[in-house]
UniProtKB/TrEMBL annotation:
GO BP annotations, alphabetical order: positive regulation of translational elongation; positive regulation of translational termination
Gene Ontology molecular-function annotations: ribosome binding; RNA binding; translation elongation factor activity; translation initiation factor activity
Keywords: Initiation factor, Protein biosynthesis
Protein purpose: Translation factor that promotes translation elongation and termination, particularly upon ribosome stalling at specific amino acid sequence contexts. Binds between the exit (E) and peptidyl (P) site of the ribosome and promotes rescue of stalled ribosome: specifically required for efficient translation of polyproline-containing peptides as well as other motifs that stall the ribosome. Acts as a ribosome quality control (RQC) cofactor by joining the RQC complex to facilitate peptidyl transfer during CAT tailing step.
One Pfam family it belongs to: eIF-5a
Protein name stated in the entry: Eukaryotic translation initiation factor 5A
Domain of life the protein comes from: Eukaryota
Length: 167
């Protein structure tokens, strides 16, 4: 132990944060990048631009990117040779198992039988209504969830109706 009498213990919060993103140079359209306050976005356009205040200065990269959760468009500039925070983004399809009584959270199950309990119902009324009505009618409701930077949101849903074979 150091003189201070404290043993070093790795923080699980640090490990969890480290698994949410990597840091490296982004090269391609359709890659992911974090802009502003760690908003995970998908890059739609990359341009190399000169600094308008110093035309002889270093060039920069301009990214036009779309927020994976809201669809909002962002523009961000980064150093031409620098690195960026690159979020780990996953898209997963789940089947709806239950809607909590307070109408805010849902219980989901993936195709391997793993439960997901920390996903909120979407705030977009049309999507929220589709999920709630399909579930109330006893239909199989499936949702697509995007996860990034410690956040998970339902971004799409569909209801599967089974037609009985009249044989």
């Amino acid at each position: 132990m150091p003189d201070g009498g404290h043993a070093f213990e790795p923080s699980s919060k640090t490990d969890a944060k480290a698994s949410m993103y990597t840091v490296h140079q982004v090269e391609d359209v359709e890659d992911y990048v974090c802009v502003r306050n760690n908003i995970p976005c998908k890059i739609k356009l990359i341009m190399t631009v000169k600094n308008p205040k110093n035309k002889d200065g270093p060039r920069k990269r301009l990214f036009v990117a779309i927020d994976v959760f809201t669809g909002k468009v962002f523009k961000a500039t980064f150093s031409l040779t620098g690195t960026c925070v690159v979020p780990r983004v996953t898209y997963t399809e789940y089947q709806l198992v239950d809607i909590f009584e307070d109408d805010s959270y849902v219980t989901l199950v993936d195709d391997k039988g793993n439960l997901e309990l920390n996903v909120k119902l979407p705030t977009k009324e049309a999507l929220r209504s589709l999920i709630k009505v399909g579930f109330a009618e006893g239909k199989d409701v499936f949702v697509s969830v995007v996860s990034a930077m410690g956040r998970a949101e339902i971004i799409a849903s569909y209801v599967r109706d089974y037609v009985q074979d009249p044989k």
